[in-house]
Amino acid sequence: MNTLGIDLGGTKIEARVFDAAWQEIARHRIPTPEDYDQLVNAVVDQIVWASDAAGAVAAVGVGAAGLVNPQTGLALANNLPATGRPFPADIEQRAGRRITFLNDCRALALSEAVFGAGQGKSVVMALILGTGVSGGLVIDQKWRTGPTATGGEIGHIAAPAQIIAAHGLPIYDCGCGRKGCIEGYISGPGLQRLAAFVTGMDLSTHEIAARRTTDMAQVWAIWCALVAEVLHHLTLTIDPDVIVLGGGLTAIPDVIADLRVAGKNAQIDGFAAAPLALAQGGDASGARGAAYAAWMDHRDATGLTV
């Protein structure tokens, strides 16, 4: 049985087909359109391509940036022209088949739990640190969602008051409509914002990372302390077997080592900090996680196994 996973982001739509052994057998990438109708058609075109390239596709999963409100079926997506539209339903209607639709960070979490750094662990939490901050929870290799469908939006918990106050950091407005969300401080743009506030210098994340042991040491220490508070929050509420870190900022050398130290400092004295691991799936994780979610839905609906 072949399964299709589509990783849908603000700049590209990447389709990957996996066989029954979860080996990739075909892939196809196209740019993300800026028009809604063209976007829906582009996703459908990827589904058609997969059937032509790899034969019958039993299940289709789409991992996309943003959220879908389970009460209305409408999307909320800052990086896609789909906000306020019934995006998953329109894809299904035009494709003439059922799809599994999930947030791209939840797709990555599932991929890492089943195939990557969380393999063999029961409770796996993913934390994605990139242009935004998000994540996902997987329990016994099953993607965990809930009635609001907002679980995993870790970037929108409140930034820790004690660190904000200690450094006199501003309270930033967030794109979600709230104020003081942690994403505004620890995402890639957040790290740049910290550097600008603390040092007055407008630097890229690469420049900050390269200078984190010299003139950017204070900025890096604040950033690590803020991320450690998120790790501590996840530990206190979920206590996962492992927290898998992904996203562009995790490519910074020694970031795991620095966050392990900061995480230990944030933990209740005498208790162990949560185990950390880097995501292993690379750019395949999103599509593979979406495909696996679709396969699970197909299995549950049909009672079939592979």
TrEMBL record:
Keywords: Kinase, Transferase. The keyword Kinase applies. InterPro entries: ATPase_NBD, ROK. GO terms for molecular function: kinase activity. The keyword Disulfide bond does not apply. Pfam families: ROK. It comes from Yoonia rosea. This is Fructokinase/N-acetylglucosamine kinase. The lineage of its organism: Bacteria, Pseudomonadati, Pseudomonadota, Alphaproteobacteria, Rhodobacterales. Belongs to the ROK (NagC/XylR) family.
